[in-house]
Amino acid sequence: MLGLLGSLLPGVPQAQTLSAVLEAEIVTLDPHFTPAYITRTFGYMVFDTLFAMNAAGEVKPQMVDRWTASSDGLTWTFTLRDGLKWHDGADVTATDAVASLQRWFTRSALGGRLGRATASLEVRDPKTFVLTLSQPFGLVLETLGTTSSPGPFMMPARLAATPGTERIPEIIGSGPFVFSRADHRPGDRMLLRRNAAYVPRSEPADHLSGGKVVRIDALDIRVIPDGATVVNAMRSGEIDYMQYAPFDMLSALERDRRISLMNFQGLEQFTGHYRTNAASGPFSDPAIRRVLLSLVDQTEVMTGMGLTDRYSRSCNAFFICGSPYENEVGTEPMRNPSIEAARAALRQTSYNGEPVIVLVANDLEAPKISSEILADRLRRAGFTVDMQVMDWASVLARRTRREGWSVFGVHALGVDLHNPLTNSVIGFNCTGATTGGFHCQEALTPLFDAFAAAPTLAERQRIAGEIQGIVYGQAMAVPWGQFAQPAAYRSQLRNLIPSAIPLFWNVEKQ
């Protein structure tokens, strides 16, 4: 097996190297450039953030040492902590932080909202900068510490000067691991070495916050597309960590003493949605779309994926169960799904046998199974179904067209979906973007603005309920289940931080 996977790169001791297989190859290294989850994972290894979220969902200072806010909430002053250095040896300064935020504002939906609410962002001294708002914004710290992708990663000002539409020319961060192009073999592996100059916070590591103490010499990230090959390599000791254990191998892995599984709950789980196309075809009629609310059986989807109650649950809350914005507004039609109820509802619409085009991604397990189950239930409810099978890249390309598709299954992490301002399913409302099914509900726009400005959690929860009511009233998307895809790792690893975003500080290899 070692011959198949390859030997270690020169100068790296095997005993102190942790080998990992992540969800995909890390192709885009600019942490602002893309919302791809794999780039976010890379970002947390090589770069750092001003604030970070702990396991309880609380935002804590990370690169920031201290901060103050004026009584009216419009002026925020931040001071960076001592000891921060870029991987090229230069000191991290307030100028770098300001430039990084300004670039990130152009790439992130949530960051863009903070940017539009900003009157000025100015450097006061080498370690201090001041954010002055032109209007109330109740989520300043939550935005600076968001886990939503692309994340608010800091980079040297000279790199942050790169337009957001272009990729940065060098990968220089200040995080606990260092990237070197000399250690990167695209299509094969990437080696991230421990940053010996990194000064961690004094607090214990707590999810993305606290002291990022690296206890290994290097992280060897392998590119191995086949899950069974990775599992065999883990059993032989050649791979230490696998981000996504195959669903069909979970029961076998649970019985293997050499392997441990890391399960996830709440914001660390995925939520699946069926995204509908409002631009053309039968689902351009909201009454026909609403039939899906009584048709989708989440239990059937989870069972079809081979997931037990240990790893999954039914959840009708659009902003996921276990989040601060979980609510039941508009969920009544989904509480007792049945083919008969859907068939009766369909008869009350203008549907006249037009084909419903269901896109099925044959190379991703969860979207494939969820879409196949939906196609079957649509037929049984009386729809004419045209099921078109293709790879995921083709699904992504097809959804940018206003015609040629009706619905497909997709899933995303709760850390991105739980907040209305970062929820990708509805985040492109009325913007003309092509990833949300061309929906436009103008009533949502002022609610998004009100949510961002709301000064209290209670007020944001009330507004989230209003948003959810509109989303379900128009059947903009329908959830098909909340679930975890566990990580698998060699049982010899100790102190691995439980996180759906793979984190490799704090872990020890024994």
UniProtKB/TrEMBL annotation:
Q: Does the keyword Signal apply?
A: yes
What CDD domains does the record point to?
PBP2_NikA_DppA_OppA_like_16 (cd08502)
Q: Which UniProt keywords apply?
A: Signal
Q: Which InterPro entries match?
A: Peptide/Ni-bd, SBP_5, SBP_5_dom
Q: Per the record, a Pfam family?
A: SBP_bac_5
Which top-level group of life is the source organism from? Bacteria
Where is it chiefly localized? periplasm
Q: Where in this chain does the record put each Solute-binding protein family domain?
A: 58-408
Its family remark reads: Belongs to the bacterial solute-binding protein 5 family.
In Swiss-Prot or TrEMBL terms, this protein is called ABC transporter substrate-binding protein
